Amino acid sequence: MLSYQHAYHAGNAADVHKHTILAQLLARLTEKAKPLTYMETHAGRGIYDLSNTEAEKTGEARNGIVRLLERNGLADGHPYLRAIEITRRGFGPTSYPGSPMIARTLLRPDDQIHLMELHPQEHAALKRVLRAPNVHIHRRDGYEGVLAIAPPTPRRGMVLIDPSYEIKDEYEDVAAFLPRLHRKWAEAVIMLWYPILPACRHETMAATIERAGLKGFLRHEIRFAETTSERGIQGSGLIFANLPHGFDSVTRAYAWP
């Protein structure tokens, strides 16, 4: 699907949920000296400007990252806060790091980053802002691209699956892809994000993935109490495979400010 552009939704409450946990997970994975490979199926443009027309049109960041920072909802030194601060020093005070920039900020020079993005404008923007010897940007289908590279070198690593879910088939595609990736790259930590919408299509997807018997499986969801729309996103969900030992306590401790 090539119409979706995340600039309208960057920094919203779902982004905060996803990126807080992602940053903490990357920090945990880099505690070991061994290098790793990080991949994304749907990378987006990497950095977003919360003052631009798209973000201002929806205003979603005001109930997301703006609210979090105003309430000092992150402890000093939190990896998510560190990624935001570094991004804003380099790209301006209204910039917001997407997951590729969070990874680029928190990972090390020896770690390899593979980013899949099919949308031509998003792909071009990603190439402009994430130039580094260890960052590899691919304009290809995310599911096909990740499976083609897996298992990579270094073999230790992580995959973020973060589609737009604009079409109904995406839920079925994800439910088929995640177990297949787990079989092909058994060492990978896998993190899947999904929206919680009134139609509840995520329930069948999550149940299908859980039945696959993935090692280190965990499902974590939050609900947005302030949501009143019958059509809009009502919450944010994450599914993990191969979650590091003890990391489930991090998800349990997550609290929306």
Care to describe what's here?
The structure is a single chain. The chain has one domain (6-253): Rossmann fold. The longest helix has 17 residues, at 13-29. With 257 residues, it is an alpha/beta fold. The protein has helices at residues 13-29, 53-58, 65-70, 79-91, 99-106, 120-129, 142-149, 169-184, 202-211, 248-253; strands at residues 37-40, 47-49, 95-97, 112-116, 135-138, 157-161, 189-196, 218-223, 235-241. It is globular, with a radius of gyration of 17 Å. The chain contains ten helices and nine strands. A seven-stranded mixed sheet has the order 5-4-1-6-7-9-8, with helices on both faces. It has a two-stranded antiparallel sheet with strand order 2-3. The mean pLDDT is 92.
